[in-house]
Amino acid sequence: MARSKEKDPKEIADWLHWLPKAELHLHLEGSITPATLVELSQRNDAVPLTYDQAANVYDYHDFPSFLMSFKAVTERLVKPVDYELITYNMVRDLALQGVRHAEAYLSIGILYRFARLDVDEVMEAAERGRRRAESEFGTSLLWIIDAVRHFGVEECRKTFLKAAELRKHMPSVVGIGIGGDEARGPAHEFREVYAEAKENGLHLTCHAGETTGAESVWSAINIGAERIGHALTAASDEDLMDVLARKQIPLELNVTSNLKTKSCASLLEHPVRRYFEEGLMVTLNSDDPPFFGANLLEEYILVQREFDFTPEQMREFAANSIEASFLKPERKLQLLGEVEQYGF
Is the pLDDT reported for residue 307 higher than 80? Predict the structure, then answer.
């Protein structure tokens, strides 16, 4: 990967900072920084965590241990009001990166599984945080209700039915998705519940091809996913690549996440450049920023620098992120106009 010699790296990084962009693959619970974790601990623990102790919670060495670290952080969410705090902090942090819109996964599936908190109270608190942050920072936020695939189809159905119920009085709830262990919850098992969710007016996303093969991405397409999270292993199947390019199914790529979880062995092996050059609809995302050490701005800077994308190509990533969003057409047009008018 050759480096561009035409533009100073700092100049490009500064330009990327305020390039209008959207974050489409971000887990609310995974956005909790060590500083926010300390704040939660001060609220809820008899002996609050120090910053260093909080930072150590994020240590892991592979995908299963990452899931355990993620669990350890989410266990600090013990009151509905905690969700107001983390939502507000997430939107604040996004705005500081030049993010104009975000669509965040909120794991109701975990709330149901462990029965720690009332889902309605959690959503009301998260909505308070969303409204307050949107008003203060101007970055819009929509919710994708996340189920955990390895908890089984029926638990996912319960989560998706709740999402449909919430949507009736919370227009910010726009879609559903499944995360968790792909191997223990193959996408094809969720065909029926995805069809039900679509009938209930929800958009469909699906994590696929992160830790299993290209067949997982095929399954996500076959159950109606409108956007696919990760899609890392699609690169191994030429027919699948052709379908993704032809249908322009948006891919929520997470380069740093894939490296940190060892889903991708090295940066040189990541298919982001190939996907872009072969005409797939690629978006860049951060997934769980404090766990992986890269927020969305840092992801844009990394991808531009290491794969030598031009500023105009980076503008295309930003435009893709807005086009692939579940925003209403008028808001999309507004943000696409901002991207087009943002000069270098």
Answer: yes
**Structure tokens belonging to residue 67:** 């899931």
Q: How deeply is 338 buried, as exposed, middle or buried, from its count of CB atoms within 10 A (0-12, 13-18, 19+)?
A: middle
Judge whether residue 140 has pLDDT over 90.
yes
d(CA 316, CA 319): 5
Catalytic residues: 210
Model confidence over 218-237: pLDDT tens digits?
A: 999 999 999 999 999 999 99
User: What's the one-letter identity of residue 329?
Assistant: P
Pairing of strands 203-208, 140-148: unpaired
Domain boundary assignment for the chain: 9-341
**CATH 3.20.20.140 corresponds to the domain 9-341:** yes
Instruction: Give the pLDDT confidence score for residue 66 in this predicted structure.
Output: 80
Residue 225, classed as helix, strand or coil, is coil
Is the pTM higher than 0.90? yes
What are the contacts of 224-231 at 24+ separation with CB within 8 A?
224/191, 224/194, 224/195, 224/198, 225/187, 225/194, 225/249, 226/175, 226/250, 227/24, 227/203, 227/251, 227/252, 227/324, 228/252, 229/25, 229/177, 229/179, 229/205, 229/254, 230/254, 230/257, 230/258, 230/263
CA distance linking residue 278 with residue 56, whole number of Å: 40
pLDDT at 6: 62
